[in-house]
Write a structure and sequence with these properties.
single chain; GTP Cyclohydrolase I, domain 2; binds zinc ion
Amino acid sequence: MILENEQQRVEQIASRIQDIIELLGEDSARQGLVKTPMRAAKALWYVTRGYRQDTDKVINDAVFDSPSHDMVMVKDIEFYSMCEHHMLPFFGHISIAYIPDGKVLGLSKVARLVDVYARRLQLQERFTVEVCKAVMDAAGAKGVMAISSAGHMCMKMRGVEKQDSTTTVVSAVGVFENDDALRNQFFASL
Ligand SMILES: [Zn+2]
């Protein structure tokens, strides 16, 4: 899956990770750690693969004509991302609704778009906005609204160590921005 020039980048990441392991006070030659740098590098490469994905290719023309202008909602799509401040995971669910304008997106494509923006160094706030805009563009929608809720390892494992806190972010573009009835319909559908 990893291309030849990508292989070189992954190998460089692995060598940096070996340095980090030693700087942390570990013996990188210890039996259990010998293969860790390359495994960790491949894992990092995988969880940031959104950088190397193209939204057009992800959508792959799965946009279909539809006369409906009623709200389409895809609920509770799970996502896994990495906080850009600490490079620690944050993960949870996002629900997305859009108002079609003659076209609808293949439902699995909404989830694929979520992955493109989750699989990189992110802020939950920006992630939620980017997903809205991507769905808006891909579907040519009249408006998109999303709510994400996630637990952040940088909150749970370090810092304030608030183990049960979740962060919720709401984002709206297009007709959802200033139509209270539509926004209420969104919240009522959750
Ligand atoms: Zn963080």
